Amino acid sequence: MNLLGTGHHALWATPLSVFRWEEAPAVQALLVRVLQALRLGHEARSGVDTSLPRSAFFASDDDLVQRIQLPEWQRLLRFIVQSVGEAAKQANAGVWPVEGLDLQVAIEGMWFQISRGGAFHDVHTHGNCSWSGVYCVQVDPPQQRARHPAWGAHNGVTRFYGPRFERLGGAHMDAGNAYLQAAHVDVEPVEGQLVVFPAWLPHQAMPYDGEAERIIISFNASVHVRSGGDRLPGQTYAAR
């Protein structure tokens, strides 16, 4: 049992980490070409009529880790794995029973999405993993993206809905529950930026339109102890 003493306790924070890949400017054009080629191959195998206007939204299969065999891709994967490990470490500070656990990050699935012309991805969560992430490969520059006449700064952002969001359904609002009323946060898409978040966190890709297509890489990941089990000993703690 967790025992709380007297005083104020800010409970149930939601972890979310944002990273930037330093190598992104040097490899972005290559990644765009590779992903566009994969899309063309998928459409050809699927019998897509290339005489028709191209769909505003495309999502690949989730086997992207194995599909690309390039040194630049392997470096991006290492950056993603290291970032997930760091996010998990920060989220579990004070919960993992010992320092220096020998942990392994497993990518359970990885895919890419291409959108334009107002395409979006509705609210959803990810299953069968503890962490998920979105890496931005290509998008309009921030100021240009935010000048969209209809969506402005919300153009193409990823919107995350915190645990308090569902409390607002029909809820009374006054100054006393003002802490509930900022129930979502928008993370703008920036080339080379990685957002790592709990897989249970509801999120959506808001509508996007721009000169450049919005190309992102999404993934699911799990974190395991290399030796022994994932149910760590001593997981019940008294507050200090």
Give the termini distance in whole angstroms.
13 Å
Shape: globular
> How helical, in percent, are the residues?
10-25%
Task: Give the total of domains.
Answer: 1
The SSE string, one letter per element, is: EHEHHEEEHEEEEE
Task: Please tally the helical runs, counting DSSP H or I stretches of 4 or more residues.
Answer: 4
In the sheet with the most strands, the strands line up as: 1-8-5-10-3-2
The appropriate CATH architecture is: Sandwich
CATH C-level name: Mainly Beta
Would you mind describing this structure in some detail?
The protein is built from four helices and ten strands; from the N terminus they run βαβααβββαβββββ. With 240 residues, it is α+β, with helices and mostly antiparallel strands. Helix content is 21%, strand content 28%.
